[in-house]
Amino acid sequence: MISRLCILIALFFLSACSSFLFVPIKPLPITPDGAELIYEDQFIETDDGLQLHGWKIFADTSKRDGKKIGNLLFFHGNGDNVSTQLPNTFWLAKEGYELYVYDYRGYGQSQGEPELDATILDMELMIKHSVEQLAEDEKLIVMGHSLGGSMATYVVAHSAYRSRIQALITVEAFSDYHDVTQDVLSKSWLFWLFQWPLSFTVSNAYSPVEAIGLVSPIPVCIIHSENDEMIPMYHADRLFAAAREPKVFKQIDSNHSNILLSRDNRQVLFDYLKTLRKK
After folding, report:
1. How far apart are CA 147 and CA 167, in angstroms?
2. Which of 6, 32, 151, 273 has the most CB atoms lying inside 10 A of its own CB?
3. Which residues, in sequence order, are bridge partners of residue 232?
4. Helix segments in 22-133, DSSP class H
5. Average pLDDT for residues 107-117, to the nearest whole number?
6. CA dist., res. 100 & res. 41, Å (int)
7. Mean pLDDT of all residues in 122-136
8. Are β-strands 247-252 and 70-75 bridged in parallel, bridged antiparallel, or unpaired?
9. Res. 192: pLDDT tops 80
10. Measured between alpha carbons, how far is 96 from 222 in angstroms, rounded to an integer?
11. Domain layout of the chain by residue ranges
C-alpha cells in the first residue's frame, strides 16, 4: 500500500513538471480584424501529419506608401496562443511589420498534444513556412517571449534557414530548463522540498544558454525586466554572457506577461528594430 502511494505521488510530481512547460490555451477570444488589421489563417502540416494553425497579419502600409518595413515571426509563451498574445504584438503590424504567429501543437486551433521535442521540430517548420512567403531579398526577424524565446534560441541556432534570419529577439526568456523549473517549483510550498530532483525530470537537451553562442553572426537582442516575477534576471544575464557579437541587452520595467503593453517598452523594442533596418 505504501509503495503504491509513493508511486502515485511520484507520478503526480512528474505530471506537474511535464505540464509546467506547456499550458495549452484553446479559445481564440480576439482576432486581428478587431485591431483593424488584415490577416489570413495559415496551416502547416507537421512531419507526423498534424495541422498547426497560425495567422499572417499583414503590415499596415497606409502611412508608408504601400511598403512594409520588415517581417517578424513571433513565438508566444507557454500560457498564451496567437489570440491572447495579440495585445502585445498587433502594434508591430500597425508600425509596418508583416507578422507571422503560429500556435504550438495543442494550442488554439493546432492539433495534437504539447511535447517539447516535437515542438522544436515544428518551430523549424514555422520558420520555413514564413521564409517561403518572403521575397528573395527579404529576411525574417525571429522573436519569442518566455518559453517561446528560449525554444527559439535553440531553433535559430540550428536552423537550416539561418541565412534568411535577420535577428533573434528574446523577451523574458530563461537560460536553462532545469534552473527555471527550480525557480518555479521553489515558489510552491507543495514542491519546494523537491525542486532540485524534480527539475531533472524536464529535458535540458535544448538548453538556450548552450545554444545562444551558436546564433552568431545573426544579431541577438535580449530584453528582460528585473521585476519579472516568473523568470529572474540572472537568466538574461547568463544568456547575454554566453551570446556572441553582435548582441545587445535591453532592460525594461514590466511584469512577465504584459511586457509589450507599455508604450515605453514598445519604444525600446522599436528602437532596436530601427537599428536592423540601417544594416
Report:
1. 18
2. 151
3. none
4. 86-94, 116-131
5. 96
6. 10
7. 98
8. unpaired
9. no
10. 22
11. 2-277
Strand-strand pairing, 70-75 and 97-102 = parallel
- Beta pairing partners, 37: none
Cell of 185: 517549483
**DSSP bridge pairs for 57:** 39, 99
**The pLDDT of residue 190:** 47
Please count the other Cβ atoms lying within 10 Å of the Cβ belonging to residue 42. 17
Locus of grid cell 525571429:
142
Sort 65 into a burial class: Cβ within 10 Å, 0-12 / 13-18 / 19+: exposed
Sheet with 97-102: list strands edge to edge. 39-45, 51-57, 97-102, 70-75, 140-145, 165-171, 220-225, 247-252
- pTM, two decimal places: 0.89
The residues, ordered by sequence, that sit 6+ positions from 60 with a Cβ below 8 Å of its Cβ are 37, 93, 94, 95, 96
Q: Is the dihedral of CA 33, 39, 40, 46 positive or negative?
A: negative
Q: Phi, psi (5° rounding) for residue 156?
A: -65, -40
Helix (H, G, I), strand (E, B) or coil at 66: coil
**H/E stretch holding 142:** strand 140-145
Angle of the 177-185 helix axis to the 2-21 helix axis, nearest 10: 110
Indicate if the pLDDT at residue 17 is higher than 50: no
Question: Check: CATH 3.40.50.1820 for 2-277?
Answer: yes
3-class DSSP state for residue 99? strand
**Residues 178 and 199: beta-carbon distance below 8 Å:** yes
Percent of the chain with pLDDT strictly greater than 90: 72
For 245-260, letters b (16+ CB in 10 Å) and e give: eebbebebebebbebb
Q: Cis peptide leading into 24, omega within 30 of 0?
A: no
pLDDT tens digits along 30-75? 999 999 999 999 999 999 999 999 999 999 998 888 899 999 999 9
Cβ–Cβ under 8 Å, residues 37 and 60: yes
